[in-house]
Design brief:
The chain is α+β, with helices and mostly antiparallel strands. It has one domain (about 1-159): Nucleoside Triphosphate Pyrophosphohydrolase (Alpha-Beta Complex). The chain contains 3 helices and 8 strands, in the order H-E-E-E-E-H-E-E-E-E-H. Mean pLDDT is about 90; it is low at about 155-159.
Length: about 160
């Protein structure tokens, strides 16, 4: 997060527009990968903010590798999320309005390896057994995936 950190030195904790990407990783059992975040002790999707010059798909791939050790071999665009419901105040006081591009990933390689500084745990969950403490900015993304994306996801996987 070099770009955001540089901005923070100039604007402090004031709200920033933060553009980024997240990845909805689905295993062969139809389970979703969530990470237990160290900053707020909530479960969320792998993802993060864009660096200068990056494409959104590159952000998704980079963050997935950094936070989980997985390499995506195929990302499918899911949706772009923004608006008031994507306002978030981090536990340390920084405020952001997220603009998040979500991707779905069924095809990946590597072994799960959590990023020590940001992630306490990585777990695949059945969609009907998700934890209750979902990271606030990830909740609407997961909710929409459960409402419509997972049927699209299953269709694409079976094609």
């Amino acid at each position: 997060m070099g770009y955001i950190m540089d901005l923070r030195k100039k604007v402090g904790t004031h709200p920033l527009l933060m553009v980024g990407a997240c990845v909805i990783v689905i295993n062969d059992k139809g389970e979703i990968l969530l990470q237990l975040r160290k900053d707020n002790l909530c479960w969320g999707l792998p993802g993060g903010s864009m660096e200068l010059g990056e494409k959104l798909e590159e952000v998704a791939q980079r963050e997935l590798l950094e936070e989980t050790g997985l390499i995506s071999s195929d990302l499918t665009f899911f949706n772009v999320f923004s608006g008031k419901e994507f306002y978030y105040k981090y536990p340390h006081g920084d405020e952001v309005y997220n603009v998040v591009t979500a991707y779905i990933c069924h095809n990946y390689e590597g072994e799960l390896r959590r990023e020590e500084e940001e992630v306490d745990e990585l777990t695949f969950f059945r969609l009907d057994q998700l934890p209750t403490n979902i990271n606030p900015p990830d909740f609407p993304v997961i909710k929409e995936y459960m409402q419509k994306g997972c049927s699209v996801s299953v269709i694409k996987k079976n094609v």
